[in-house]
Design a protein that fits this description.
370 residues, alpha/beta, 41% helix
């Protein structure tokens, strides 16, 4: 039997997450492993969300609210948008997938992405057999918005801007996004992926997707509760979109795509401002320490507005990644992110960062700093 799977699906590369701690312990015979590869919240989940989860678990036999009404209402009230404009998904990954489903239906269709940026944008296009137009980041590893506008054709359906960008942590400004929107033709929908929103929101020139949606622009904003709120394990993404796009997503999504535990935890987490503040403050300190460690070994860390640091080692990063792994420190090597000389390191606890810095110093003394 020869299953007739679509060729474009077989060309897709499955998403490769960071190595699990248990796997590294087993493979290398280590007792202590620190994972700084997946941009998780080192302080754990929102305590309010944990309490809500405990109560909700007793009703896990009941189907969730298919419309996620209460969570969407809470998000609408918190961010000042109409209820009809709030979209929800099984992580913001699912919302990216759904955007591909509702916009892309032809091999002629195109999406425009920065490179390197979040790989799931490409997957949304590949699944639809559409074309991915990659526009290299500029010399500072920021999205080159003018170049992205120039890459637009009559077949362009979606333009993705991760802001802050993953894997580089860099930011584009409101003035830059305003100029891009001015120059884009009306048939292009812009996706502002704000997965790391809370870490950058206080920047004076941060371009908030909510503002553009309220202005009636052809813009979709995506956010997640996986990062600042520490709910990566239960998968809850949300966002804001013009009413017609939100309606189309609701038509295309699976029934009950957001489980009941995620919904109640999400409502509680959105109300936990103290946890967000603790997370942001821990992140600020961690970014400073990580950047300083990279500078000490002669590497170039790029300014980060997310919860990780992206640094150019000036030499292939894979041997450094492997040497750190053998010392029980998991980071993200740049070759899988489109930048083979770079490492991406997530902010951890103070203890975890100290372990990383010690290991990095040892490794670079052996591998050879610049």
């Amino acid at each position: 039997m020869d299953p007739q799977i679509r060729p474009n699906v077989l060309k897709m590369t499955p998403y490769s997450p960071g190595k699990p701690i248990a796997e590294v312990k087993r493979e290398l015979g280590l007792e202590r492993v620190v994972k700084l590869a997946s941009n998780e919240n080192p302080l754990g989940p929102s305590p309010k969300a944990v309490e809500a989860l405990k109560k909700a678990a007793e009703e896990a036999h009941i189907y969730p609210d298919g419309a996620a009404h209460d969570f969407r209402s809470a998000a609408a009230e918190r961010f000042g948008v109409p209820y009809e404009s709030v979209i929800v998904g099984n992580g913001s990954d699912e919302l990216i997938h759904l955007l591909g489903l509702i916009f892309l239906d032809s091999a002629d269709d195109e999406i425009i992405v920065g490179y390197p940026s979040f790989v799931r944008y490409d997957a949304a296009a590949h699944l639809a057999n559409a074309k991915v137009v990659q526009v290299p980041l500029d010399s500072d590893y920021r999205h080159d918005l003018p170049a992205m506008v120039k890459a637009v054709s009559e077949n362009t359906k979606l333009l993705f801007v991760a802001n802050p960008n993953n894997p580089t942590g860099t930011l584009v400004t409101k003035a830059e996004v305003d100029a891009m929107l001015r120059d884009l033709p009306e048939h292009v929908t812009v996706i502002l992926d704000e997965a790391y929103y809370e870490f950058a929101a206080n920047e004076s020139d941060f371009p908030c997707s909510v503002d553009y949606v309220l202005e009636g622009r052809n813009v979709v904003g995506l956010r997640t509760l996986s990062k600042t709120y520490g709910l990566a394990g239960i998968r809850l993404g949300y966002g804001f979109a013009p009413a017609k796009i939100a309606d189309a997503i609701n038509r295309a999504r699976e029934p009950f795509n957001v489980n009941s535990l995620a919904q109640v935890a999400g409502i509680a987490a959105l109300d936990d401002e103290a946890h967000v503040q603790r997370t942001v403050e821990n992140n600020r300190r961690g970014l400073q320490t990580l950047a300083g460690a990279f500078e000490t070994i002669g590497a170039k860390p790029y300014p980060s507005f997310a919860n990780f640091v992206f640094a150019d080692l000036g030499q292939p990063a894979r041997p450094v990644f492997q040497a750190l792994l053998e010392r029980g420190v998991i980071v993200r090597p740049g070759d899988v992110l489109g930048a083979p000389n770079c490492l991406r390191v997530s902010v951890g606890t103070e203890e975890e960062i100290d372990i990383f810095v010690k290991a990095l110093t040892e490794v670079m003394a052996g591998v050879g700093a610049r």
